[in-house]
């Protein structure tokens, strides 16, 4: 395979990841809009059989995790194209903190911890469930801003745009 073709394939892969990031933001935002924030344990207890509410909450868990995972994969991949070396994800985060794509490594790790708790904790105390989702709600704005800064970084520094413009307009509206 010619080196030029290899580079084109790697850029296309990043473009697809950028489109996936925009799609994740779009659908996470739609799930957020279905919830009246902030949540309370009393509300969740009173609505414990409301399948629409709990489907939206499950979607928030899944979509928050998917957005952060996709951002992480895209960050790693973009470093290949930028010629940066990072043998561990903390080094990836340090590079993107330095480039002001992420606000701080600690903020990323807090969001990651909240995401991991959602994936592994089967809490039945509705006050704790409300606290978890209120935390995700708070962290989502920062994750949206990170996504926006990353897409802009890829466009300006690497010349790579999302694979299609299908979600771009909404993405920029949601992340402003």
What features would you describe in this structure?
With 176 residues, this protein is mainly α. It has a single domain (3-174), classed as Four Helix Bundle (Hemerythrin (Met), subunit A) (Up-down Bundle), CATH 1.20.120. The chain is 77% helix and 0% strand. It contains 7 helices and no strands. The protein has helices at 3-33, 41-46, 51-82, 89-98, 105-120, 126-158, 168-174. α3 packs across α4. The longest helix is centred in the C-terminal third of the chain and has 33 residues, at 126-158.
Secondary structure elements and pairings:
Blueprint: H1 3-33, H2 41-46, H3 51-82, H4 89-98, H5 105-120, H6 126-158, H7 168-174
What is the fold-level CATH name, i.e. the topology? Four Helix Bundle (Hemerythrin (Met), subunit A)
What can be said about the biggest beta sheet? none
CATH architecture: Up-down Bundle
Average pLDDT metric: 93
Shape: elongated
Q: Identify low-pLDDT runs.
A: none
Helix content: over 70%
In short:
It is built from seven helices and no strands.
Kindly list the characteristics that best describe this protein.
elongated
């Amino acid at each position: 395979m010619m080196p030029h073709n290899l580079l084109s394939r790697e850029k296309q892969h990043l473009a697809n990841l950028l489109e996936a990031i925009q799609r994740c933001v779009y659908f996470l935002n739609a799930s957020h809009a279905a919830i009246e924030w902030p949540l309370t344990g009393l509300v969740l207890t009173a609505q414990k059989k409301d399948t629409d509410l709990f489907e939206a909450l499950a979607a928030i868990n899944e979509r928050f995790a998917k957005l952060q995972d996709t951002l992480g994969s895209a960050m790693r991949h973009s470093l290949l194209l930028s010629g940066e070396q990072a043998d561990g994800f903390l080094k990836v985060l340090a590079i993107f903190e330095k480039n002001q794509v992420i606000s701080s490594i600690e903020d990323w790790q807090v969001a990651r911890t909240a995401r991991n708790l959602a994936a592994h904790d089967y809490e039945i105390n509705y006050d704790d469930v409300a606290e978890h989702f209120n935390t995700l709600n708070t962290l989502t704005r920062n994750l949206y801003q990170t996504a926006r800064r990353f897409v802009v970084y890829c466009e300006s520094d690497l010349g790579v745009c999302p694979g299609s413009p299908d979600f771009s307009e909404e993405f920029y509206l949601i992340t402003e």
